[in-house]
Amino acid sequence: MSVVVLGAGLHPWGKQGRPFTEYGVAAARAALREAGLAWTDVQYVVGAATVRNGYPGFVAGATFAQAMGWSGARIATCYAACASGAQAVDVARTRILAGLCDVALVVGADAAPKGFFKPVGGERPDDPDWLRFRLLGASNPVYFGLYARRRMAVHGSTPAEFAAVKVKNALAGSLNPNARYRKTVTPEEVLASPMVADPLRLMDICATSDGGAAVVLASESYARRLGHTRPVRLAAVSTITPDFPNTFLDLPAFATDSALAVPPPPRPFREAIAHAAYEEAGLGPQDLSLAEVYDLSTALELDWTEEIGLCAPGEAGALLRSGHTALGGRQPVNPSGGLASFGEAVPAQAIAQLCELTWQLRGQAGARQVEGARTGLAVNQGLFGHGSALIAVR
């Protein structure tokens, strides 16, 4: 049995000053319209949680179910930082595969504060996320800057190469009606934007955003009964954790696991996230028509391009310059415009990536359509070792 995507919906992202619930409900209704279903047809609701919006955010499944109108549907809520959406999809998919329901709604939404993310309030000396802000002053852009410096040292990347990533994604975002930033930019504009965390400038780093995303998932047999003869199919969901020893420093950790007495795993964590999805789907990176990757910064997109196997380590810059990962290229990366064009609405991100894969594979992506798209990968990760990768096929 397969699980398919019957509907996808987004609330346009930005800073609109509304409660996060409104964004999620708007996205849910859009996904239901695409699926041709009523809210009362939904048997199971999974909400991706947000820690920034009080108790309603902590119990997002119930929050969205109540906002849509109590219907007796079963609910679940999960939080895994930026992997929350993928975990929510996986929970819904698993229940369908178990035969416990035929149709499920997955929703994530956030209303982010102005500026960069900060720790949740209070004194919590046993919380690594709180500690990395208090002890190191390591806001997210600091980490992104350290990753970028590492890439420059190891692979010889340059700020001009990072700027080229922004130019590519801004062009794609200018074609996406749901994106927050819809202006094209030049390399000179990126390189002239204010320095935030050397070597990354303001235009190299994704913003924080409000936004919502939703998908309607169903069993293949249920889809056929509704007349959906060729829906987009979820071929894999990877939510793996790192193997010990984890030898690559990842936020919010201060240090890696020691590898002095234990050999490192065959793959670093990020590479393993995508590899697990490929194994489940029975596919490889050469089979991808497109990929949505976690471009928290321009430098990180280059890292992820290598980590999902589109090229060898150190070769993402050359792949970018060749046009391979641009719209019209062999394997476009972030044809939605990526987080560069949307910003971070944390619990919605992985769900929004699945929305983009769905529209691309259906041929409904408009001016940013990837010609002949048949297979798509979406990948990101959450704090504390949460993997997040989805593969969709048609």
Which tags fit this structure?
about 400 residues; alpha/beta; nine-stranded mixed sheet; two-stranded antiparallel ribbon; 14 helices
Mean pLDDT: 95
- The end-to-end distance, rounded to whole angstroms, is 15 Å
* SSE run: EHEHHEHEHHHHEEEHEHEHHHHEE
- Note the main sheet: 9 strands, mixed
Low-confidence stretches: none
C-alpha Rg (nearest Å): 20 Å
Strand content: 15-25%
Helix proportion range = 25-40%
Number of strands: 11
Which structural category fits the helices and strands? alpha/beta
Shape descriptor reads globular
The spatial strand order of the largest sheet comes to 3-2-4-7-1-8-11-10-9
Topology (SSEs and partners):
Blueprint: E1 3-14, H1 20-35, E2 44-48, H2 54-58, H3 60-68, E3 74-78, H4 84-97, E4 103-110, H5 128-136, H6 140-155, H7 159-173, H8 187-192, E5 195-197, E6 200-201, E7 210-219, H9 220-225, E8 232-238, H10 269-281, E9 290-292, H11 298-307, H12 316-321, H13 338-342, H14 349-362, E10 375-382, E11 386-393
Parallel strand pairs: 2-3, 2-4, 9-10
Antiparallel strand pairs: 1-7, 1-8, 4-7, 5-6, 8-11, 10-11
Helix pairs in contact: 1-3, 4-14, 7-11
Summarize the structure.
With 394 residues, the chain is of the alpha/beta class. 37% of the residues lie in helices and 18% in strands.
Descriptive notes:
The chain has helices at about 20-35, 55-60, 60-70, 85-95, 130-135, 140-155, 160-175, 185-190, 220-225, 270-280, 300-305, 315-320, 340, 350-360, and strands at about 5-15, 45-50, 75-80, 105-110, 195, 200, 210-220, 230-240, 290, 375-380, 385-394. It is of the alpha/beta class and about 400 residues long. It has a nine-stranded mixed β-sheet with strand order 3-2-4-7-1-8-11-10-9, sandwiched between helices. Strands 5-6 form a two-stranded antiparallel ribbon. Helix 1 packs across helix 3 (about 60-70). The two termini are about 15 Å apart. The mean pLDDT is about 95.
